[in-house]
Design goal:
4 helices; 25% strand; L,D-transpeptidase catalytic domain-like; two-stranded parallel sheet; 8-stranded mixed β-sheet; 210 residues; alpha/beta; 2 domains
Length: 210
Amino acid sequence: MHRKIKTTILFAFFAVIFFAVGAQNRVVISKPALKIFVISDEGDTLHRAPIACGRLYGPKRHADDWRTPEGRFKVKRISPWLAKTPELAPFGTCFMLIDTPGFTGIGMHGTNNPKSIGTRCSHGCIRMYNEDARKVLGLVQVGTPVTILPDTVGLYRSRTRNPIVFSTVDCSPGGGAYADEVMEMMCGASEIKLSRPMVRKMKINRLFED
């Protein structure tokens, strides 16, 4: 009897550890919207912030082409700065390197030029205000998935009394290549609590652009 109890407790303990380790946040970056979203494993938006990204549009083709890569990647290395005046450093308070095959040095970081946030101006990195970079730093780890949506994926808000968020991507089950990420980003961009079924219903009601 006691052995069964001990076995049950051990099983529950390791199950909790397994799911805690398995649970992982993810990052979705929209170049068209110039926004970054950190989304929990449960689909909740933990943080969203404005960004700056590559000056030129489209996927990155070669080094120093002033474009931000597009696709699904992972955080490769995290480097918090220990400088006394990180706001003077080009990368601000921290640098989160993204593993982008074929290209090096692409990451998410702070900045010493806060006026650049909200514009297309970088060589390819994702810039944030330093306070936002610190918040993102605390929500990611090595291996965290990072999706950078293509410039062709639009995210819009209708100009009505009760704004509707809509996208160029089919977010219905089995929809476009970035359906899940766009749906989560739409939920995070809405000022009201927007659930997944509601977003999918929008698609059925043809509130998306074709």
